[in-house]
Amino acid sequence: MGGDGQVTLGHSVMKADAMKIRKLASGSVLCGFAGSTADAFALLERFEEKLKDHPANIQRAATELAKLWRTDKMLRQLEALLSVADAKHVLLISGTGDVIAPSDGVIGIGSGGNYAIAAARALLQNTDLSAATIVEKALAISGEIDIYSNLNIYVEELECQS
User: Fold this and answer.
1) Are 86 and 158 in contact (CB under 8 A)?
2) In sequence order, which ranges of 12-130 are alpha helices (DSSP H)?
3) Could you tell me which residues are beta bridge partners of residue 15?
4) Which end of the chain is more exposed for a tag (fewer CB within 10 A), N or C?
5) What's the whole-model pTM score?
6) Residue 162 half-sphere exposure, CB side, CA atoms within 13 Å?
7) In angstroms, rounded to a whole number, what is the distance separating the alpha carbons of residues 142 and 20?
8) What is the pLDDT of residues 50-104, one digit of tens each?
């Protein structure tokens, strides 16, 4: 999982070296976020609580968070997206109740997410690069196109078991 370091407020860059990925569950789960920073941190905390309720089952934790996010009056107002991964699953969680597991394991969120998805899929289908290298190169391509992304790229890895 990777992320760029840019935080914007309106049309201004406020921070260029933010860490948008967190390790959860003693390092066995990665969580990335995009959108409003405060909203993303609020959701990250709630996802971590759901992981404690459902250890070693990010699908159930993600579903429980999505249900809470969609039905709670305060949480419904939050504007962010989460991507979560463990050794077997990659999921996107949205405030509309979506928990999506992409068929190819590629997720992109944030303003440059679609550019990164396109680049990652092209690299995945046409090269023998490692997952970490694909993430890094896809984010670099996205960072060169999207004005709300930058090239301060961070990549975190988990040992894959799928």
Assistant:
1) yes
2) 37-53, 58-71, 113-126
3) 7
4) C
5) 0.91
6) 10
7) 16
8) 999 998 899 999 999 988 888 877 777 778 899 999 999 999 998 788 899 999 9
